[in-house]
Amino acid sequence: MRMTRIAFLLALVHLLCAMKLGVCQSNDDSEDEACLAVPLHKKVNKLYQNAKDRGKSYKEQTKLLRDALEIDDQCGACLWEIAKKNFLKAKIQGGEYFDHAIKYYTRLIDVCPNWHADMYYNLGIVYYNKTNDELAKKYFELFLEFPTDDEKKLGRNYAQQIEDVEAVLPEIDFYLNFYGNPVPFDPKLVATVSTEKEEFLPMISPDNELLMFTRRYEFKGKGELITRTVEELTMSDRTSCKSPWGEGKVMPDPFNTIQYSKYGGVSISIDNHEMYLCACQQQGHILNCDLFVTHYEEFYDSINKTHAYQWSDLKNLGPNVNGQQSWEAQPSISADGNTLYFASARGDCYQNSRGQYTMDLYYSERQEDGTWGLAKNMGPVINSSGHEKAPFMHSDSRTLYYVATTGKHRLGAGGYDIYYTRQDEATGEWSTPKNIGYPINSDGDEEGLIVSLDGKDAYFSSSRSGGKGLRDIYSFDLPEEARPDVVALFKTDLKDADGNAVTEAEVELTYNDDNGETVTVKAPSKIDDKGKVVAVVNLGKSDQPKDVLVNIKKEGHAFSSKIIKGAEVVENKIDPVIKMEPVELSELKLGDSYTIKEILYKSNSSELIGGSQLVLDGFASYLLENGTISIEIEGHTDDIGNDENNLALSKDRAFTVFEYLTSKGVKASRLSFKGYGESRPKVPNNSSANRAKNRRTDFKIVSY
């Protein structure tokens, strides 16, 4: 019996496969002739075989394959060969050959979806190179799903391909999310400080009332032949953190002198009295940049016969911070004034793939004697084989913003991108830095970011269109996810009973943590020789702000506190810069009574409300810390209502405080309580304001 032509050709194909004379596709009986390894059509097969002649050029080979496809547009072997040839050509020359490879691979997939795993792998490569992340992900995932039961349909380096795809998919997912979910970004020109000159490297003071930046312009003086570039450190101010900025004035001596030709950023302490800055001096052919400190000091102005303030001479921070053969710039001082962050290029920075040292972020800690300790690299979580610079530590003391070069080591839009990281309060470890998002980050270089006290406004410099000069200062609403903790800046004057300044005291913060436990910590604070105190109060996350008790304490003095409600700061009901009336720190005296403010009760009830429990938590800590003090808790009312009822109510309220303090560990033997009703008013009960002062809880010193 004679074999049919088709049966004969099929037998020949299987024979060739068995003899390993070529790459063969093992096809199920159900597959049609389009998916055979060798075309059945005589003329198509001849064109196909001629196209595989390595002596022919790419142009000749692809023409033969196109001619074959003109006859049989579903010839799987032809589509496979022409797709491969275009793919290989694209790897060398790119351009249109990528499009040709896409065309033929996708046609082959339509005709023979199980032809070979490399169809999907190579399409993933093509789309990855064309930065079409959605289709790259699609084809890479189809490659991973491709059946592996027939090794002939897998590439020779299949294991490496799997490893490469699994490594690149997280990158693709990053970019799909990065560009597919743009963050809100509507930058506004800070018009009052932006001019036709260049303004850059902005920095705001913690109270958000000072804006410092560098202004650069070309200048040619009278009689000068050459135009020179001038850089001036400039300061703008405003009356509150919500009012418009002033135009900005050139900062006086010791700034902008001939000694320093350039400035590389500034940072100022929470009381605006200590400034750190980068100043650069020309030393031969090298521009040497170091970090300096200056203090805002009082002096007597003999001309105007008055006391005034001026900045002291710049003082180099010394060899622990500034190296002889290194570059330091862009300082950022922590809220407590004890850690200085900065950018540096030096011999112990991380190296790139070529073995070159990069630019990294460093920190130095203030020592007990006030000097700065040896600078330390911030480590591999923050620093990388690329460059990192422009650190900005927010006043929440845990959120750090900076810019870094992007690449395989750190994904981003390109050039320098803005990142942020948060420090764990318990461990001190930094979180994996997060890209702030697109379109804040563009394919160009971002210069850095500073964030307002309330975390809502961000400032940066840019050369984008729509400005006034080559570079201008802009602000925008910082996306919620990138915002720091909610903080407030607490300002007041400390006085004793005679009205004299109190210069030595501690500021503590008491709050309830996520587990409901009472926590007391030392606040980042400054107290000057005039008794002016500034403290940073961390109020937690904006979606769950907490109430915090600010306790100003001094040994041998009465308990003094103020509650700051986080929700009121978040909702803009109060300004984040809280300026209080002077606080009196009263020295303890036997028999004297002292009022505990902000202990509130329900109307005609002894049930505590508001932040009263937090106040009593702080007072309990005070008593536990001062174990020799014994007190009488005194309840007082105003003159509204029945005398007998007021007396009973005041006693009940005093007892409530007694019970609460004992529940917090204060021994009952140190406490007594008594109600006085309306019998001991502090002020006359002749107004609602005075009556409010008379409704109070006092503690009388029985012994200490």
Strand content: 25-35%
Rg result: 37 Å
CATH superfamily of the largest domain: Tetratricopeptide repeat domain
This entry's quaternary arrangement is single chain
**What count of helical segments does DSSP give?**
12
CATH topology value of the largest domain: Serine Threonine Protein Phosphatase 5, Tetratricopeptide repeat
Q: Characterize the main sheet.
A: 5 strands, antiparallel
Distance between the termini: 121 Å
Q: Helix amount, in percent?
A: 10-25%
Structural class: alpha+beta
* Mean pLDDT across residues: 90
Total of domains: 5
**Overall number of strands:** 36
Q: Any idea what the shape is?
A: elongated
Question: Overview of this structure, please?
Answer:
The protein has about 700 residues and is α+β, with helices and mostly antiparallel strands. It has five domains: about 5-180, Alpha Horseshoe (Serine Threonine Protein Phosphatase 5, Tetratricopeptide repeat), CATH 1.25.40; about 185-240 and about 450-480, no CATH class; about 315-445, no CATH class; about 485-585, Sandwich (Immunoglobulin-like); about 590-704, OmpA-like domain (60s Ribosomal Protein L30, Chain: A, 2-Layer Sandwich), CATH 3.30.1330.60. It is built from twelve helices and 36 strands. Strands 6, 7, 8, 9 and 10 form a five-stranded antiparallel beta sheet that branches. Strands 22, 25, 26, 29 and 30 form a five-stranded mixed beta sheet that branches. Helix 2 runs antiparallel to helix 3, helix 3 (about 60-70) packs antiparallel against helix 4 and helix 10 (about 610-625) crosses helix 11 (about 645-665). The radius of gyration is 37 Å and the shape is elongated.
